[in-house]
Amino acid sequence: MKLSEKKILRKKEQILLSAIEIVNRRGYSGATMEEIAAELLMTKGSLYYYFKNKSDLMYQCHNFVLSQGTEDLRDILNRGEGSATEILVKMIATHMEYAIEEKEVFNLIMEPKRFFNEEQLELVLKLRKEYENLFDQIIKRGITSGEFRVEEPFIERMIILGAMNWVQQWYNPDGRLVKEEVIEKYTKSILKILK
Predict the structure, then answer these.
(1) CA angle 3-75-148, nearest 5°?
(2) pLDDT digit string (tens) for 5-21?
(3) In CATH, what is the architecture of 1-51?
(4) Considering only CA atoms, which of 115, 190, 111 is closest in space to residue 150?
(5) In which residue ranges of the chain is CATH 1.10.357.10 found?
(6) In this structure, CATH architecture of domain 53-194
């Protein structure tokens, strides 16, 4: 890769990180290309050099967060440190961190058809399938080792991800429970489903 290509990739990543922060702060509809450009001390026109429009930028943000999450979960799974239960606990904590910290961008996962065009949607769904498959793998590993007693791993995975994704609908960082307590309570409840 040429130095100029690396520089463009670094700048694009910097834009994505700022856009993610703004979307998490203001929501999808509240985040504007103007605000993102201003935060980066660049013109709106310069922003359009990297992204066709707001939809493209939001797709790239979603893809960036989901790719990072997938990579993090894959690393946890591939390291294989501990029992299936211990690995799943780490995966739950990682997923919950993303769901809480990247709330608005993560929310795009909930209704991808609403935000993405057909081409983007196809890629998003492929990446989501890869992400879900990591949970399938650890659940099956737990069944094989005798740690988990479930009949339908697919249904259990859907229940687990559905419950974890819903946290972004109700969690309030200023509420009664801090993030770590929420993650701990979710983890205990999820493990009860599997045991």
Answers:
(1) 160
(2) 566 667 788 888 888 88
(3) Orthogonal Bundle (1.10)
(4) 190
(5) 53-194
(6) Orthogonal Bundle (1.10)
Neighbours of 163 (CB within 10 A): 14
CA–CA dist 125, 131 (Å, integer): 10
What is the CB neighbour count within 10 angstroms for residue 30? Answer: 11
Where do you find CATH 1.10.10.60 in the chain?
1-51
Determine the Cα–Cα distance for residues 100 and 94; give it in Å rounded to an integer.
10
Which tokens belong to 24? Answer: 């998490």
**15 in Cβ contact with 47 (< 8 Å):** yes
Query: What's the pTM?
Result: 0.84
* Percent share of the chain, pLDDT over 90: 44
